[in-house]
Amino acid sequence: LSCLGRLSYKVSQKIGSLFYKLGYTVALYPWYTILFSWMFVLICSLGFLRFHNEKNPMKLWIPQSSKFLHDTNWLMSNFEEGTRIQSVLITANNVLEPSVLQKVSYISDEVFNLRTRDKEGQIITWNDICFKVPIIADFTASKRKRRRRDIFDEDDFFNDIFDKSHKKNSKEDRNATSISTTIKPSRKHSKKKSFNPSVDMDPEFYCGIIEKLPVGCLHENILELWKFDKRKIDKLTKIEILKTLNRTKVSPVTGHDMEFVHLLGDVVQDENGIIISAKSLLSLWFLQVNFTETQMDDVGNLAGTEDWASDKVMRWEQKFVEKLDELQKNLTTNNFKIYYSAGRSYGDISAASMFQDMDKLAIGIIIMFVYMQVVLSKFSWTEIRIQLGSLGLLSVGMAYISGCGICSILGIPYTPVHTSLPFLLMGLGVDDIFVMMACFRKIQNQFTEKLLPERMGLTLQHAGASITVTSLTDIVAFLVGATTVLPSLQSFCLYAAFNVFLMYIFVITFFVAIFALDEKRILEKRNSFIPCLVHNEERTKIWCQKNLMKRFLNFLYKELILTPVGKICVILCVVIVTGFNIESLLKLRQKFDPIWFIPEETYLNQYIMKMRDLYPEMGYEGNVIMGRLNYTQELPSILNISQRIDERNDILHDVKSWAIPFQEFVQTNYDKDIAHTELSDEDFRHYLSKFLYSSSGGKFQANFRFDKKLKCGQPVPNITVATIDFKFRKFYEREEYIPAKNAVEQILDETDIKSGFSTIWSKAFGNWVTDEIIDEEIYRNIGLALIGVMFCTIVLILNFYVCFWIFICVLLTLINIGGCMQRWNLTLDIVCCIALQLAVGLCVDYAAHIGHTFLTINRGNRNKRTLETILHIGEAVIYGGVSTILALSMLITSSAYTYRTFVKIFFLVVVFGLFHGIVLLPVLLSICGPNPYSGKALLSSSSSSLSLNGSIKNKKYKNNLDIGNGTEMLSFISDKSNTKNNNKIMTNNLTTLTHKNGKLKTIISNGTTDSVTTPDESEQLNNQI
């Protein structure tokens, strides 16, 4: 043997010896093993005292080192409040019909009158939680006939207060002022100085009026045109509706500027631009959210998709959803349809979709359990493995509980993606159980005379090494995956690594103990369902047992696959299929749409689809956020930013900047151009205060936060936050929104504000920053996992050739999975990232079982060893793959995107994993497979021997098992002629019978020890078991 060959031989012997000792000991003391296992689970369960289910989306889906997370935390701690929007969308042939507006009026009244209770029993109304704004409608209402125009002049607000008439300059075209990166003076384009009360009046008198202004709730509703007066609305005619809509640019309810046309969808205009009809009407209600009162542990959901909100807001929104559901059912007709969305809708529905199909999953598990019984059992009253199958699945649950307990102790949070972890454990655990059962049946057929502990030791000797290889490679794959920057995936991989390790431990201890007890029951011919009932030999069989799978595999491989023609066909098939899938893999793209988490039949999905159809330009809101800057120094830069983002109408629209109106205000009233003249700190504070309490600047108060309360007539305090608002256009592809995000950020970077914090922020960035890196994370994690798996298999299998072919099979499996994903309309997103991480762990198992077993077969040429490998372990591998599919089979009809994606990817993993593991790899090994662990393969078709190294000391009987050296694996082609020949050869090879220290020892000519106990000791050992 070569140096590496001798090393692999010694390591395989040592591993086999250790597993033999473990199996023997566990089978000798099964109840102690079971007791210790349950005690361990109980101790680990104490970790649930520190269990934390993470619900904060910022700690689940956003890279913790990302700029977006830093900016969001800064914004929440400094801005302190925000809004949540409740929406109602009405569609009809023409929503500007009187009958439609009457129904809208009824719906609006129902929303305004909603009442619910908080957790303390206090009543919550719309006025308690709405976002408040100053109501200036009484002052902007017309006391005389006004000219029709787009916006009010600056002094209109105060003309009503004093009933003065001032001559107006003709409205200037704002587009006449060139907006470019080079700021031009506003002097030439400024308005002629007119009376401005905020500047020209006595501050004490003026501020006395301002401070008396009432506040009211913010909403956007076409019925504001008639102040929600039901009597007026009931008497409206179509002409009156169109006339009022086309003329009004200020809300009669709040007094603020309002473009009511923005609430209309699919608008029809005549040749003069006058609106004459529309297909949809949008109504919006704004709720106030105080970030300092938000506790995600209280209001978050198990899916981690809820937005920031207080408990009161969440309760009112729940009432809103219930009421709109009722109105939708009662008011919907063929010509009038209602669609709606609440602030909590996405979180509620996405969370429900992740858990709505748990009943289907439970059915799938039951199906898998029945399948396990078919695979593990023989059809007799004593050999139906009902207890073994049940407790085998219990070992999966024990591993899950223990693993979660340990991770909780270590402070690792539990996340929504962990719901897929039990499926992984069942797939791996059941696969290991099938492998162990396959080995036990072979041992049982070959060594019926051996005692039960010895047979269990031999079973674990042969199965343990294979199970170890697959389990440790899975663990390495998950530990590598834990290096990701995505918090939820990182936590999942750590949980998976711990759970797989404990699953491995429980399979080789707890399950072996259960196995030994169940086998003892069978030996005593006790009934599987009623153990106290003992059968005689003649009455145990239910029907004849036929091993059809083994016969089928023997025919398939011997007559087809392992023939020269069969091998060529398999290789050609792999090349052709992989070629097609490589082409598809190159087209696989990254895309994630949050609507995928929303089932199609839900009210929110219907609302979103209608909004996309009727309001295609309504994109995501964004902000330029500035902190504690030297604003007098940075004003030119802020103006530059405002003008440049206003130019980017290809990606932005509806830019609302306070900087340009402030520039015009100062130019008009103080004859200073702030673009080129740096103001003193005192002047800046004075001018900004006047501006924010003027008719043109009052609406921008919401864009500022100060370290003290802003007061009329006093200079503004230190600015802590200032924002410029804009909206992105509607984007659907990463190739659209990522460049748009980068373009806006580049504008800010090039402006180079140096005196403090500044950034671009949008709520949509939460998804965009993840989308920007997710494909890189997937390829990185899979690549590192493959390297880790390759390294692990080399260390454990210690045969470079087999490890290389295992690596090729895993790589081909992943390539084909990726190609089929593209053909199946799947994209790279967070769900696929998790599923593919699982795929690495699962698909390596199939090939590793075959590769390791091939090295333990020492008889015959490569073809013969390959056939024996398949007959020994192939059946168990196939059963394990099918069990994974069965566990998820009921989720095929699921409407949840998460489950649909998992089913598709797991199906691909099993199909391609099994094909490459039990078809391609055997073909490759039959062509260029290496020698077995023991060195040169034995060409005799009947030679059979067993190596059991080391000794096991039974303290109770002071009995030593001395085992000699030899090969590692038996011949498992179990036809009758071979069995007879093997027995004959073993008999002929007996050369010496010696009796030493009361023990009968049979020495075989090749040095193998066959029997190690006297008849008396055998009887005593059986009685003990």
UniProtKB/TrEMBL annotation:
Q: Does the keyword Membrane apply?
A: yes
Residue ranges annotated as compositionally biased, kind Basic residues, are 185-194
- Membrane-spanning residues where? 29-49, 391-414, 420-440, 460-482, 494-517, 560-582, 782-814, 826-850, 870-893, 905-925
What InterPro entries does UniProt report for this protein, alphabetically? HMGCR/SNAP/NPC1-like_SSD (IPR053958), Patched_domain-protein (IPR051697), SSD (IPR000731)
Which Gene3D superfamilies does the protein's record reference?
Multidrug efflux transporter AcrB transmembrane domain
Q: Where is the SSD domain?
A: 357-517
Q: Which GO terms describe its cellular component?
A: membrane
Pfam families, from UniProt? Sterol-sensing
In residue numbers, the region (Disordered) covers 168-196, 1006-1025
Alphabetized, the UniProt keywords read: Membrane, Transmembrane, Transmembrane helix
Does the record bear Transmembrane helix in its keywords? yes
Family label: Belongs to the patched family.
Tell me which PANTHER family the record gives. PATCHED DOMAIN-CONTAINING PROTEIN 3-LIKE PROTEIN (PTHR10796:SF130), PATCHED-RELATED (PTHR10796)
The name on file for this protein is Putative conserved plasma membrane protein
